[in-house]
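Entry 0007
Protein: Fluoride-specific ion channel FluC
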Amino acid sequence: MKQLLLVFLGGGFGSVLRFLIGKYLNSAETGIPYGTFAANILGSLLIGLILGLAAKNDSLTQNQTLLLATGFCGGFTTFSTFAYENHVFLKSGDFTSFAMYTIASFVIGFLAVFFGMFLVR
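Output (structure tokens):
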């Protein structure tokens, strides 16, 4: 039960922060989802740092890892919004934005995880 509460609390904080970043960074004029992109890349970097610390000499407890990685990062990052935004790009025929957003999100997201884990070595 304690573990569920930790994931719940972390997820709530992550979701609220993602909402605020999206509110201030997503562009209604251009339709480019800068906020979602920023949240997903920052979340990728954070999970790399968190899991890197957890693996390094057991620096984080299982409960801390659940709160931060599973809860906070799980609530902060969002694949469903990413998928929806790509749907909007495709539906409007904006194949360039679709390709750039998708490729940049995957490549930079993976690099951010690796960089986060590299930083804690």
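Curator remark: The chain has one domain: 2-24+33-119. The chain has a mean pLDDT of 95.
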